Request: fold
Amino acid sequence: MSDHDELNAPVARVVREIFGSVASLAVVGRLREEGVEAAFARLHEIDARLSPYRVDSEVSRIRDGALAPADAHPETRWILSACEALREESGGLFDARIAGVDGRLDPSGYVKGWAIGEAHRILIAAGMENCALGIGGDVAAAGEGPGGAGWVVGIANPRDGATALASVRLRDAAIATSGEAERPGHLHDPSGGVAQSPFASFTVIGPAIDRVDALATIGWLEGAAGIERVDAEEGYGALAVYRDGRAVATEAFRAIAI
Reply:
């Protein structure tokens, strides 16, 4: 099959529940079942170990004092270390230790993006080089998309979830949005209270899904300075939607917007 034929091959889709949300996989060309199963098995493994919503997960046991972090699985320790690095980078704005709905440990603000990246790499390694994997609105995309036109991803209007505010074309890139549209009150500030932001939503695009997910959370918490933070990071762009409906996009975001 020529490169042209591959780009114009049918799109196969798989939809499954994971992380209390819905995972959507789209593949241009042949759907390799073994790779798909391996990718979703990895997501379930991560969920079992790191979900704050499963009472038997290591994160929940650490949160509840039943497991010392030093005794946790190496992957759990690595995640907690990555979250601590983000806390330091953000001046305490991104703080997994207090991010839960109860103001306690919840590394989901980093884990979901990282997990998508883990599964996405498995899919690519299995031969699905032109694919997109999304969970709860966060998407990692590889390849040129259907027909070589890129993977089109819509960004929901935070004031009307039934409509799209904007769309982008992703090629070997990722997108993540943070805000309160899906889970009101789930973001907390360094004092442990429910965080306030001038933004209704904050969307980031860039090459790495774990990084765009983290920057989306930090940017939402940081306010106007968050736009500057993302704009200063090479290869990343942002779309910030204020609560009054105004929207501000960086040049890197506008470059791939439709």
